Amino acid sequence: MFKTVLFPIDQSREAREAADLVTKVVQQFTSRLVLLSVVEEPAPEAPAGDPMVSPEAVAKLLENAQALFSQQGITAEVIERQGKPAFTICDVADEIGADLIIMGCRGLGLTEEGSTDSVTNRVINLSPCPVLIVP
């Protein structure tokens, strides 16, 4: 049913908590798991070397997530992209033919358009496949 599962991750607590459900779904359906980390272009006023967006921090995040799933017997592919998170998540889902996107309910932030629109809401509205949100 879910041949390919996309799991967008960031350094949020919600993403870490969603990992348990991702493990269960991938094991139950023997799915291909793709981990995605999206790095936004830093705003001009952002401090240089922000650890949340450094290439090293993203590489470490993906490496740790891959190791976590490996301990559960799951081989996870990793993709790192730069861009607007919601649009990039949906683009990657389309590119890899994802059957399901699983993500935490909040992640690290709201979109630049304001507090009423989150990355999660945007993904739900733009996704080419079902989206499972983990509260």
Automatic annotation (TrEMBL):
InterPro entries: Rossmann-like_a/b/a_fold, Universal_stress_UspA, UspA. It comes from the Bacteria. CDD domains: USP-like. Residues 1-135 form the UspA domain. It holds the Pfam family Usp. SUPFAM superfamilies: Adenine nucleotide alpha hydrolases-like. Belongs to the universal stress protein A family. PANTHER family: STRESS RESPONSE PROTEIN NHAX, UNIVERSAL STRESS PROTEIN UP12. This is Universal stress protein. It comes from Anabaena sphaerica FACHB-251.
